[in-house]
Amino acid sequence: MMRSLIIGTGSHAPPRVIKNQDLERIVDTSDEWITSRTGIKERRIVDGETTNDIATKAAKSALKAAGVSPKEIDLIVVGTVTPEMLFPSTACFVQSHIGANRGIPAFDVSAACSGFLYALDVADKYIRTGIHKKALVIGVDLFSKIIDWKDRNTCVLFGDGAGAVVLSAEKGKRGILSTHIHADGHYWKTLYTPLAICSSPLHHKTPEHSYMKMQGNELFKIAVRTMGEACQEALDRNGLKAGDISLLIPHQANMRIIKATGERLGMPEEKIYINLDKYGNTSAGSIPLALDEAVKNGMVKSGDIILFAAFGGGLTWASALVRW
Ligand code: ACO
């Protein structure tokens, strides 16, 4: 059976660092509150770069790591909810910017912070059909564009970033073992961003209407439950136990959500990859950015079992299990 082997990872976080102390000057908050409630110390924010720019940088670094030419890529799937344009898709821009072949399929999927795992699920299924051989999967978001920088409930949580992987169709035991994606639209009001385009004179809407809205407490509880369930689902599907996992790479939203997920599974803290202190919540960029760091830090070795889990607006939640 064909499997999707991750043969290269890459990422890009904008160089501009915004520390918690910088936010103290913008809203009524403190480094102590942000650190103790979320684990975040600083985040990266774009300064002129666009979604397409940072997605392209992450894609190029993943291609380089994989030793794959853009001409070999036959599918591009991007998870994002902050594209530069409504259309063309971010995937189409990446296709053109990296110099991939004309005519290959390229499209975005919208699942907020679960976006990368949704994109991975889609690309994996295309590869398993045997039709596609080399896929580029990207998670990218610039939440700095949609958050209200006057709202302390949300502006302290997010950052900008992108990550990418190259998938190759291979036979054997290594590669993506399973992916699991879920949604429950009944909870849409816990996290949403109205479209700025609806602010026509007829609708009498102001720019504030297009900022992200969040019910943090409600989301927190759902996140802990769904992340735990998604992890367990991936383990059960593959007949594995938490002790078989070499590394859990969770969506980097809040240290307390990550710890609660780890405790539910019985995973020791040293087997959970955490970098949200440096980047905050980069939405769809979060998991592939963390994966790329973990790979570069030598924390992922051939044969390791890696578990990914995410939740996000929609609501959506997802997991994936990979034998590296
Ligand atoms: N600085 C100081 N005080 C603050 C801040 C801040 N930045 N933000 C909120 N507060 C205050 C509140 O106003 C409240 O004050 P009050 O008691 O006087 O009313 C107090 O702190 C406690 O607020 P809570 O909301 O109860 O704080 P909580 O411990 O739940 O933490 C948080 C809030 C961090 C938002 C948490 O609920 C959380 O992380 N939820 C999940 C959010 C999330 O992950 N969103 C992303 C989803 S993924 C995606 O798709 C993008």
Please describe what this structure looks like.
- With 324 residues, the chain is an alpha/beta fold.
- The protein folds into 2 domains: 2-172, Thiolase/Chalcone synthase (Peroxisomal Thiolase, Chain A, domain 1), CATH 3.40.47.10; 177-323, Peroxisomal Thiolase, Chain A, domain 1 (3-Layer(aba) Sandwich), CATH 3.40.47.10.
- 32% of the residues lie in helices and 25% in strands.
- It has 10 helices and 13 strands.
- The protein has helices at 20-24, 31-38, 51-66, 90-98, 115-128, 152-155, 216-237, 255-265, 276-279, 286-296; strands spanning 2-12, 17-19, 42-44, 75-79, 106-109, 134-142, 160-171, 175-183, 191-192, 213-214, 247-250, 305-312, 316-323.
- Strands 1-7-6-4-5 form a 5-stranded mixed sheet, sandwiched between helices. It has a 4-stranded mixed sheet with strand order 8-13-12-11, sandwiched between helices. Strands 2-3 form a two-stranded antiparallel sheet.
- A hairpin with a 3-residue loop joins strand 12 (305-312) and strand 13 (316-323).
- Helix 3 packs across helix 4 (90-98).
- The longest helix has 22 residues, at 216-237.
- It is globular.
- The mean pLDDT is 95.
